[in-house]
Amino acid sequence: MITAYFHIRLKQMLRAIASLGWIRILFMAGIVAFLIPGLFDQLSRKPHVYYVFVVFYAILLMVHLKRSDRLFLKTHFVNPKLICFTEYLVISSLLIPGLLIHHQWIAMAVILPAILIIVQVDRLPGARSLHSGLISKMVRFIPDGSFEWKSGIRSSFIFMALIWIIGMGTSFYIGSVPVVLFILGIMPLGFYEKGEPVQMLLAFEKEANGFLWYKIRTSLALFTAISLLLIAAFLVFHPGRWYIPVAEYILFLMLHSYFILTKYAFYEPNTKSGGLQVFGAIGTIGVIIPILLPIVWLLTIRFYLKSRKNLNFYLNDYH
Amino acid sequence: MITIENLTVAYVEEKRIIDSLDVAFSPGTIHGIVGLNGAGKTTLLNAIFGLKKKQSGTITYNGVPINKREMSYLMTESFFYSNITGREYLRLFKNKQFHVDRWNDLFLLPLDEIIDTYSSGMKKKLALLGILMQNKPVMVLDEPFNNLDIESCRIIRSILLKLKDMGKTILITSHIIETLTNLCDTIYYLEQGKIKNTISKPDFGKFEQEIFSAIESRNEKLVAELLGSAPLSGKQVKLYEPAFQRAIEHRDLFRRF
Questions:
Q1: Is A194 on the interface with B (CB under 8 A)?
Q2: pTM above 0.80?
Q3: How many contacts (CB atoms, under 8 Å) link A and B?
Q4: β-strand B169-174 against B29-34: which pairing, if any?
Q5: With an 8 Å Cβ cutoff, is A81 touching chain B?
């Protein structure tokens, strides 16, 4: 049965790639070809190899926590953790050749324990406390229309609050606020990955443009509320470097708008869009590698037009 | 009045789910749409609500193309966004006249709890509260009684009858005929994307019998054929009683065909 499962997985991957179309496949291949030599280079150096390692497995942990096929695995396999373990081992083979070539034995030795730890984790700390009084009170300040934020804050409040407090408490270190701002800017992007039921879309009774504008406006306001005090703290200790958090804040405003437009460009009720995952990754890379920013800007325009067209199918009666 | 003329819906050109359908749904009436799985019930409702593109035909409400502003739609599966409460979901529908807590006295839902913790029946009730809150003149309900307990079914039945008296047009699908005969004024039997039969209230009993015997005889013949080609073990047969048992008894009879 495990062989059949991996056969299905392979077919799923091939179908997902085929659905992208040739132009997007070439574009993605170009980005991968651009990133791999850089990754290979980072693996050759200490301590960079450890940074790569931590980021790689942090992303893998996030993917693991967001898996939507957990119930399927639990009901169809005697040992679902073994399935996850095997999958993550296959994914780790991206790093293994580079680590072997550069004799990075410590990182090699930690791969198996890292995967073993990841497959044991079921949820982030604090994810159980959805009903806690504090979270309920915080969520009340979020507008009803921003249900993505209500949902996302509930599931990751403890983690985000912890990061935010660390950022404020260590803001006298020049690198602290930018790193925290980066994490808090990236995390809400995950709130948008699932398409809402069509009834929730129609409840706004707005036409496509008005709806998109509302979504972008509220999202940017909420991100501003999270980041404002952090930026202020940075400016108190490092006024000469004011442009660092400001530039980061502006980049994330752009990235949030890009994500919302991408979500609705590929929106289908009740589904996680493959398009958002692929183009979301491109947008995120665009923030890390500024040379790709013009591509993100062009895609933003493209997805604005596409999201309007896609939403018009559902909201055409609200003109 | 909802008027559907020459409606055709197809997922691929060759396979029409709804095939040149003509029907009219009058206001102040509960219309039932019944049919076997795959007959096209949900596709028809999706097309009426504008969630499925039509290949041809028109759907009008009072003479103008039908509009989502005039309709609310309860889908078969009650999908919600995860990690939001029932109350937060209902607050999306702007209706200040609707007293959520008073209406909830009927259903006793834990509105301040996360929807993910609700049972499927509770989710259905929450979706129905949302529909009632929207208070549109046309209500399109796909399998509204699925997953509900007897008491909730009775409550919803009485609500729907009151809404009918208020002049609303209500379309309901179900694959359970008894559900519809207890509630509807007219029932449409859908088969392969066409309305095969339209029955009004006085003929419901006769219709029920006809449908049941037609389905039963067709299934028995098929079951007998399958059993003839690959006989089941005694243990398996027990699982499929009584329909299979009857089929086995008639196996020889069917083999002669």
A1: yes
A2: no
A3: 65
A4: parallel
A5: no
